[in-house]
Each structure stands twice: as structure tokens, then as C-alpha cells.
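Please complete every field before forwarding. Incomplete forms are returned to the sender.

SECTION A: IDENTIFIERS
Entry label: holo-478
Bound molecule: zinc ion
Molecule representation: SMILES string

SECTION B: INPUTS
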Amino acid sequence: MAAPASWETVIGLETHVQLRTASKMFCGCSAAFGAPPNTNVCPVCLGLPGALPMANGLALQLAVRAALALGCTVHSRSVFARKNYFYPDLPKGYQISQFEQPLATEGSLSYLSPDRGIATATIQRLHVEEDAGKSLHDRFPKHTAIDLNRCGVPLVEIVTGPDFRSPQEARAYLLTLKQVLEYAAVSDCDMEKGSLRVDANVSVRRVGRPELGTKTEVKNINSFAYVEKALTVEHDRQIALLEGGGTVEQQTLLYDAKTNSVRPQRAKEASHDYRYFPDPDLPPLVLREEFIAEQQALLPELPAKKRERFVEKYALSVTDAAVLTADRSVADYYEAVVHAGADAKAAANWVMTEVLADAKDHADGLRVPAGALANLIGLVRGGTLSHQAAKRVFGEVADHGGEPRNVAEALGLIQVADTGVVTGWVSEVLVSHPTEVARYRSGETKLLQFFLGQVMKLSRGKADPKLAQRVLEEKLVA
Ligand SMILES: [Zn+2]
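SECTION C: PREDICTED COMPLEX
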């Protein structure tokens, strides 16, 4: 009997993204993160009788922009619905969401799959909803506290098809989604602050089988580091179950990062009878065509487009272009350096190494002005500074500012291309290393690098390396 085909994972993702607004979705309360518990609340978001919700115009603009950035069709008419369920952090007893008529449908997002190259995820729908409050289990021993500040904070939910074939793919998609939403400036996508949260539908099937296996829903994945872990734990669990002759039960699971395991949500919490119906307090959301066109016009060039353009315009590799366009501010900075006159390839190398390393270590971001970096690159190109010396100047300009040439002069790093001076250094090196000179002359020509190193050391990095090499070769032959 042939061995059974191996298993394939099928994953679909539902991502909740907090929109970048100052106030909540249906009231004027602040949507800021980190306020003292229960201070950003009012009768509307607490669901007190008689309070009436009113949709936040900016939230709607951002939601439409998010939908357009993901290539969705934005519907001119969508409907807010009540999603009814009981939970302590939901004072109204329902969440305002969209159900049968969502804001947008039928989008797609291409991303780089680690297994399949460029892959495309379908965006089945994108709808607007409000967030619920938060249960705090670690505040008081043996008690659960409730913070309602988050109640009513505007979200979009972005639902993909069952398109991912591995936890790694799901993660790659999420990183791309985050990139696009950050470019479109609709959200800060900060997972640690809860502004991007993911639920996943996971099932497994034998490779080659068309039908989907029974899926489970994994919730509570709240960091990028956990996405792969949580999904791997769940697909391993399902495969072990099936190989042991069992069946997968359709259920909702919570991921526990501390134990790296999943556990079923209590049956009561998992009740899926939400009894949706249109919210009688809110009229249908009707969007004019001009409004949608305005939002489209406000979208910047998105990462995929920018990447292609960088490859085309600056003759960069796809990998380099991907690094440079991962963050919009870095991409803009790179282009500013090139526009200030730097060679495109050299500028790419500087931004990908020194600039990004410096930005990683310093919260204040890109510290060397684009014009200054362009000048610095010019100094290396013109032979005034060695690459090594330029790196020092870069650090100095980052820490203390200043013009690269002045800084290089002050540090005594200007390269010496005076043949007389360089010949002096070369002679001194050769005199103090007679054994190596003899070895070189008897054929060990790879010692040239050693001599060059000695000249650079003696000149404290100031010797023009090309000139030094030429003088060395002449003197060693003699
Ligand atoms: Zn409120």
C-alpha cells in the first residue's frame, strides 16, 4: 500500500485593524490608547438608554481608503448591523458591525510567499465595526476588571479566503497587509497596542484533495511573533488528531503564548448565534461616487508599485527594492538622497546598511539629512574619503550634525592622494617588514593586501587606497 499523501494546511485570516482617528466610531470620546481605565467613555459608547450613535466621518474615509488600497469594490450602500452577544466587556449587549451588506468586497493582496514566490490572497470583504472593551485578568487577584475605553473604537475587519498554505505564508501576508495599511496611513498597525489583531481559520487536508477539512478558529494571536507559532501548534494538533484516527471538531480556540498551546473557548463564549439585524439607530451608509474617488486620489503610491518603479528607475535588484520600500519614510528618504545627486546604487547600499542600522538603534529615526548623505557619498566617489572613513563621518553627522566635508576635515579623515606623502608611508612600511618583502618578491604576491593594510594603518586610514596600491606594486617590483 502506498504511503498516504502528506498533509496540507489551509488558513484564512480575519484581521481587525484600528483606524487612525482621534475619536471613536459613533461618539466623540477619545480613541487614544493608554488612558486610565474607563475615562474615555460616554452614554453612547456605554450604551445608556436614549443615547444615539453617529458615524465618524474620518473613520469612514480611512475605511474606504483601506478598501481601495486592497483593490476592493467599495459599495455605494452598506448597512450597519447589530451583532448581539453577551459578554462583560460589551455594555450595549451588541456590537455595531456590518453583516449582509459590508462596505467593500472582492479585493486582493499579492505578497511574497516563502514557499511559492508571489502569491495572491483574496480579500472577501472589508467592513466597518466598533471595538469592544477589555477584560483585565491580571489587575486584581481572583477578579476580572473591565476597561471600557476601547468600546466603540473604530475598526475595519479584513477577511481573506482560505488562501494560505502554511503558517509562514499567513505571516508573510500579514506583514504585507501591515505595510499597505501603513502606507495608506489608515492605521498605525501596532500589534502590541492591539491596533492589529488576527483570528485564523485553520484546517488540514491530504495534499491533492480538493475539499476542505473541518476548520477551527484560533483567536487571541496578538503579536507577529506568535502568528506562525499559534498556527503551527494548531495544524500539528489537527494532524496528530487525524493520524490517530480521530476527527477535528469545529470550535473556537484561544492561543496561549505562555504555554504555546491552544485551548477551547468555553462553549458559552463560543456561541455563534449573533442574531444580526440592521441597527435601527443608524441609517444605511450611502457613499457618493465623488467621495470614493476623492479617497482614491488621496492614496499614495503603494509598496508593490513603488518596488517595481525602484527596480525600473534605479536599476536595483528586487530584493534591494523590497528592503527600501518596506517602510514609506525609508523609501522617501532614499529617493531624496538620489534626488540630491547621489548615485542610485551607492545610495541604496548606504541606506540599507548604515542608515537602517542607525535608525534601528535610535528612536529619532533617520538622523542624517538626505542632502548630507548625498554629499558624503559624493566624497567617497571623488576619492576624498575612504569608505571606512565615510562611515565614521556618517556616525559623527548622525550624532552631532554638520556638513560631511567639514566633519571629515575636523576629524583629519580627508584622504591623502599626494604621491609624495603616500610614497613616504609605503617606504616606511617596506623598510619595517623586510621578511614579508622577500617573501613577496619570491612569489607570494597575495601579501600585497597585508602591505596595503599596514599603509592604511600607518596613515590612520587617510591614504588613498588605490594610489597606495599602485605605489606598493611599483616599489615591490623594484
Ligand atoms: Zn463615547
